[in-house]
Batch of 2 targets.
Target 1
Amino acid sequence: MGYCARLKGLALDKFAKSMHNARMSHAQRVQILGDVCFVRAYAKINLTLEVTGRRADGYHELATVMQTVDLHDTLCLTAGGDGRVRVECTRAELSNEENLAAQAARLLRERFALSQGVLIELRKRIPVAAGLGGGSSDAAAVLLALRQWWRLPLSLPELQAMAATLGSDVPFFLTGGLAFCVGRGERVTPLGPLWPSPIRWLLLLKPAIGISTASVFQGLPVNDYTDGSHSRALVGALQERRLPQPEDFHNSLERSVLERYSEVARAKADLLQAGADLVRLSGSGPTLYAPFSDLSRANQAQEQLQALGYELYLAHAINPNGDDIDVL
Ligand code: C5P
């Protein structure tokens, strides 16, 4: 059944809370176990990403709807005796002090004139430079964990302001779930928790390239700018418990990324060929996501695409704050 056919089939009497897909019972994000602290950092997808203008500071004005998904990194923080902030990552190239997670810890230490060291062990699962916000989410997870662990008197707005200095997406990850974000992306309005059941499975495909967000934004023609109406329509549909129209899953960066990176264009065609009804770029890519209404079709597509050598993740929407998602 195609996306539109399913849209017609989406009746409110089908409204149900699916324990299987929406229970967030495992979602407690920060766990303190004596002198170590574990925290999860979830990935996101962009349901919309509209570039609405260019700013004097070189950034772009955005209207974007983001949702966290259950693909996550795990961080373990340990008090460090040597007074340094260090990162040890399962990906060696990320084991350095420039890592955004280390920057987040240093930012809190500076703000409160603290001198304790911390070792951040980072088990990386979210693909890097992939449009899934992994680095930003790691940084937000460190801010949340250390605020709790070090009992720092910081309100959410104060933490959001600090997060925005680390990166445009970092404030979103402090709350996660479903949110509408404007400005650089740092002004966040949480919307959820709600999610349409017909798109409960999300197949994420990561083409074997990394893409620099800055280079995609820099090369973006003004013709690809939009006015935020797709995001407003998508939010309106979700709030009225309707499945959004396919065209409202709009990403202003997708056209130029597909044109510039043939690997991404090929991957999109292969996802459609494998049975996806809708395929969109997340962030500045290269990761593409395709929603599915049932596990068997998603799984079939995943196996078919894995056989072609693609890296894939089967995910679903998650609300990291632990509330159940209201399934439309
Ligand atoms: O804020 P962040 O460091 O994540 O942004 C990475 C790069 O993406 C920026 O240096 C900028 O070139 C581009 N960007 C932008 N407009 C935004 C967000 C990011 O131009 N709203």
Target 2
Amino acid sequence: MIDLHTHTTASDGRLAPDALARAAWEAGVRTLAVTDHDTTAALASARQAMAAWGIRLIEGIEITAVESERDVHVLGYFVTPTAPGLSRFLAKARAGRIERVRAIAERLEQLGRAIDLQRLLKDALVQPGRSIGRPAVADALVRAGHAASRQHAFDEWLLPGRPAFVPRSGPSVADVIATIREAGGIASLAHPGVTKRDDAIAAWAEAGLDALEAYHSDHSPEDTDRYLARARELGLLVTGGSDFHGEDEARGRPVERRRRMGAVTLPPADFERLEAAAVARRG
Ligand code: AMP
Ligand code: FE
Ligand code: FE
Ligand code: ZN
């Protein structure tokens, strides 16, 4: 089975690469992409961990763009993690994430829901390339006893319209696509059924978008069919995966089982087309 969307402790996943490799193996996944938010820091150790289990690692990334004040996630596959343009781009994104986490923590303090900001900042400093964000704040709210789970923390405090939401700035989708392509990668629009910018897909395809993530844990069967049809119309490739982050823990009890490892997979024929496109891009 092929799962092209997973996260590790380098961003907001709960499993380090070796535990992720075991989870992949147990779920029957034999080709796995690690796609952390705005960091490639886990890829080197993921490569080793996957090799130990006989799993093929696809080097990936999930980059946050911002359009009309809304987040748009773009996946990159077969990227060269050390490409200088990509490294600079991601370092800037992570610095912006730290500033945003500081601003959210300040807001929470004013709201009487202080969190241990120093611990979050230390995490970001100690682990090179560590990418922090709202999920880390949500976990800090749980640790401080202000929320029962990561999900509750988002619902109460961190989503747009909630009291500790802080807007972000970020690169355009076109800039993200160009950066992924310059690093030798294939760019795919992550979970378009969640992002809900169907109106913009044709323009992003013009800007060099290669693929749509038609298969995703948060997609209904109708969503998947719609994006498969859209990809065919526009001549785009298709990607898919579970978006596994590990399980949420509400005071020690797992509550989030929706995005199970290997619960959503990519058909092998689509993967072969993706790989052929990557080989062609590298010349
Ligand atoms: P950030 O990039 O800091 O804005 O955080 C966004 C990340 O938080 C997403 O990539 C998801 O992994 C996670 N996330 C977004 N919305 C929710 C939600 N409602 N509940 C739990 N996690 C969420
Ligand atoms: Fe995430
Ligand atoms: Fe995403
Ligand atoms: Zn993701």
